[in-house]
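Posting for a labmate who doesn't have an account.
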Amino acid sequence: MNLNLTLIAQAVTFAVFIWLTVKFIWPYMLRAIETRQKTIADGLAAAEQGRRTLELSTRQADEAIKEARARAAEILAQAEKRSAQVIEEARQTAKEEGGRELAAAKAEIEQAVTRAREELRDRVASLAVAGAEKILRREVDARAHADLLESIKRQL
């Protein structure tokens, strides 16, 4: 066997292999590589978009939390204000009720004093008439007796 012929056959076979590879296999590989590059580029773009969306969402969440805290503080302040109002209203109501009870008690005391004075006047008048009757030892008619009681009541 001739070394030159084998070398030429191998060179021709290698050239045919390269030509077939370039003609038929290489386009498929380039398409696969381009598709893979496009997929990777799309993935990187989606990752970048996701990162931006995450940052935006984080900022919005922070703002929502700040607003919620502010709203909670406002509600708490309103509750404390309302609590103070309720306490003040209760104090005012208790004061008014105490004033009414005090006035009622004073009126009741005044009525009791008036009744006691009237009863005392009646007893003093009866005692005075009885004493006068005993002193005079005479009978006083009913009309004169009533007139005498009335004059004693007016003097007392």
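Reply:
Got it, the structure tokens are right above this. Residues 62 and 138 are 110 Å apart (CA to CA).
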